[in-house]
Specification:
Two copies of one chain form a homodimer. In chain A, 41% of the residues lie in helices and 15% in strands. With 326 residues, chain A is an alpha/beta fold. The first copy, chain A, has an eleven-stranded mixed sheet, with helices on both faces. In chain A, helix 8 links the parallel strand 7 and strand 8.
Chain lengths: 326, 326
């Protein structure tokens, strides 16, 4: 598979992105196209380019984190995000990975690749793995802050297809995130969505609560992008606080991860660590697009490329076009 | 202060409730009224009743967790919840603590005590202490699943008064929970609420994200009851998964808390443990009402009584009536 990687996107670009791409080229059967500033990338990747059959697509412009997505896309047609998405559109690569401005990636994907027919709102699907034995897919992780029941209904379908194809789960258990397990609980959006998903033929297990995330009771967690984003970031923040823990008086860095590993609890934070999963998949556009965490370093990028490779292998975006025939 | 305690409410009632009440009577300067089945309470509390000046208010009926709040209140006028709330209404006690059916406690408080003049929607305020050095108050933690901007605006004011009076913070930092820090981020509710809180004269620090919870950047986290409940339960679930951790193959119980304490990380889970804080305060009704976790055992109940005592001492519900004069 050919994977384009945004070498200019993310806090640790381009160094860590290139390192991650090199790791991925060793680990997976992929041909990588680094999208970014040509001279810099030649310098960083050096001999590895030829050795690992990596290519460079020159993108002299860069969209920063603070920029307004739509304006930035208009003003910077030669940015790594625009060029990377266009490589997908033109069929020159099978997937695109970016740790850059999420809003800009979403907009570029939406406007350049377009939505899969029948999909109202593409959603970001992210793995939440606070239960190691049974990681769950959460969507929407932040693409749509305001949703309607028809959107949540489609998220359930998109998540079902993802879980079958990427996670290899035969009959994914679909849960609807709510503030109570009874079907009468929830805000109006959730109450209406509950009834629609219930009658969908999916393996719907009903409402799930925040404390169910750790219990491994569901394979897919359906929620709006506002709530989903907050939950994902809450888990991430807690994971970070364990990994980078300092003593209460801030006098010393306790190296939480090492300490936890010492006592056999390392697996706990591993599940809460976004680096393990690399990125969220944008479901519902005509192409495979992976959005990585802005703070991604080599390991997260390598894993994101692995996910992109898997999505491309199973032709995920084509599978997702079955969303309306379920 | 006189505190009524629902001895029939919660998964571990009445044994653990009575144990917690006895602990509280030792630790705080409180007179406790146990509300529940008289004969059973005499049996459980025994000689402690006289020794600790504890009283019993007989409530032969009990509202279970699964019951519909309004129907249950109508059908069971002699339930511990109805009788406990009435003790507050009649001025016979200064506060009521219950680990029973939350919906029923909220309804009883709302209809029997009534709302503070000018308050549109009372809210549950719960301590989130994933950052031990700087615990934050989150509201609404679950009383109102659907909110309007005027509600979130009032939650900010109520939280400000609580933080000043109960947490002793002079100028509480108020944050609005959102899916991005910029003021243009959020769903429609948050975007509109942001503008109202911004112009309120409160010490508003703007939007906070899920991963800010651990950073101690805010004293009050304002959110709707749907999102708030999910966040609180997510943190609780993760805390539980650390405390009651099992090895990945389920072969042994690792006693997470003890192991973490061994390596000096005990403070991390302590902050995520609802038992430490005992309960959420219902803000905006004419009386002091504390809702404890349904799984509360003695320690949580003791702490909830401590919180009730503090709320009564500072006459919290009277302070809250200043909400419209801020």
């Amino acid at each position: 598979m050919k994977i384009a990687v945004d070498a200019s996107g993310g806090e640790y670009a381009p160094h860590e992105i290139v390192k991650g791409a090199i790791k991925a080229a060793h680990e997976y059967d992929v041909e990588i196209v680094l999208v970014g500033k040509k001279a810099m990338l030649h310098l960083l990747a050096g001999k590895q380019l030829k050795k690992l059959k990596m290519k460079i697509a020159n993108a002299p412009q860069n969209i920063e984190f603070g920029e307004h997505p739509m304006e930035a896309l208009r003003q910077k047609p030669r940015s790594s995000i625009v060029i990377g998405i266009n490589l997908v559109k033109e069929g020159k690569v099978d997937a695109f990975v970016s740790a850059g401005n999420t809003g800009a990636v979403l907009c570029a994907a939406l406007f350049s690749l377009g939505k899969i027919e029948g999909v109202e709102r593409p959603a970001l699907a992210s793995i939440v793995s606070v239960n190691r034995a049974s990681p769950a897919l959460l969507l929407d992780a932040g693409a749509n802050a305001d949703c309607r029941p028809s959107h949540l209904f489609q998220f359930a379908r998109l998540g079902d297809i993802y879980a079958k194809n990427i996670l290899g789960i035969e009959s994914p258990r679909i849960g609807l995130l709510s503030n109570g397990s009874e079907e009468t609980k929830g805000n109006r959006l959730v109450q209406e969505s509950h009834q629609r998903i219930k009658n969908s033929g999916l393996n719907f297990i009903g409402n799930v609560e925040g404390n169910d995330l750790t219990k491994g009771v569901t394979d897919v967690i359906v929620t709006d992008g506002f709530t989903g984003n907050i939950v994902i970031k809450t888990v991430e923040g807690l994971g970070d606080s364990f990994i980078k823990v300092r003593s209460p008086d801030h006098s010393r860095n306790l190296r939480g991860r090492a300490l936890l590993s010492d006592v056999g609890l390392g697996f706990l934070v591993k599940g809460m660590d976004y680096r393990e999963y690399g990125g969220a998949c944008l479901l519902g556009v005509n192409g495979n697009v992976i959005v990585s965490h802005g703070r991604s370093q080599a390991k997260a990028i390598k894993n994101a490329i692995g996910l992109a490779n898997r999505a491309a292998e199973v032709e995920l975006h084509r599978q997702l076009s079955e969303v309306n025939n379920g």
